[in-house]
Amino acid sequence: MIDSCGIADFSGIALYGSRGFDNGFIFDGTTTTRWDVYGTQTLGALSTDPDDSFAYDSDDNEITVKPTTITVKLGTRAYVSTKRSAKTVTIKVGAKKWEPKSEAYRTWNAPSAKIQYKSGSTWKTKKTVKLKNGTASYSYKTAAKRTYRFVTGETSTRFGATSSTSRR
């Protein structure tokens, strides 16, 4: 385990959120562990409590666990589709967020939602949209063929997402 306690061969880290004790990890000679997030999991900032944590090096010497904060966020998805009718391009976008209670992705009205197009090697924002029921649509006139994508911003409890691309 590297970060909160230096290099450890065996450690147990206690995590606390706004509601008190939230979760803990045991590392036994590994540097990562799987973390299943359930419906009761506190999202956002969690802090270690050095008094409730421990770490030992490979010679069984105790290592001081330092206070640290981690951020727990859940996954999101973004998607885009386009169609053209003569010079009118219609771009449909959507976002979904992972919901631990239902163990599925559900519609998400991401607070930051941008339709972008590629200009050379740079992505430029064409339109910032407000999602309703996780989707939005935007149409405009252009003769140019462009590559589009949809980007949602990150929040304190959700990762941002970038869709695949669509060309029209």
Please characterize this protein's 3D structure.
Strand 9 and strand 10 form a beta hairpin. The strands form three sheets. Strands 1, 2, 3, 4 and 5 form a five-stranded antiparallel beta sheet that branches. Strands 9, 10, 12, 13 and 14 form a five-stranded antiparallel beta sheet that branches. Strands 6, 7, 8 and 11 form a four-stranded antiparallel beta sheet that branches. The protein starts with 9 loop residues before the first strand and ends with a strand. The protein has 168 residues and is mainly β. It has strands spanning 10-17, 20-28, 44-48, 54-56, 69-72, 76-85, 88-99, 104-107, 113-119, 122-128, 135-141, 147-152, 161-162, 166-167. The protein has two domains: 10-72, no CATH class; 76-167, SoxY domain (Immunoglobulin-like, Sandwich), CATH 2.60.40.
Can you describe this structure in just a few lines?
This protein has no helices and 14 strands. With 168 residues, the chain is mostly beta strands.
Distance between the termini: 48 Å
Mean pLDDT comes to 89
Secondary structure class reads: mainly beta
Query: What is the beta-strand fraction?
Result: over 45%
Principal-axes geometry comes out as elongated
How would you name the oligomeric state of the polypeptide chains in this document?
single chain
Number of domains: 2
Number of helices: 0
Q: Tell how many strands the DSSP assignment holds.
A: 14
CATH top-level class of the largest domain: Mainly Beta
CATH superfamily of the largest domain: SoxY domain
Calculate Rg over CA atoms: 22 Å
Task: Kindly identify the CATH topology of the largest domain.
Answer: Immunoglobulin-like
- Largest sheet data: 5 strands, antiparallel
H/E series, N to C? Answer: EEEEEEEEEEEEEE
User: What is the helix content?
Assistant: under 10%
Detail the poorly predicted runs: 1-5
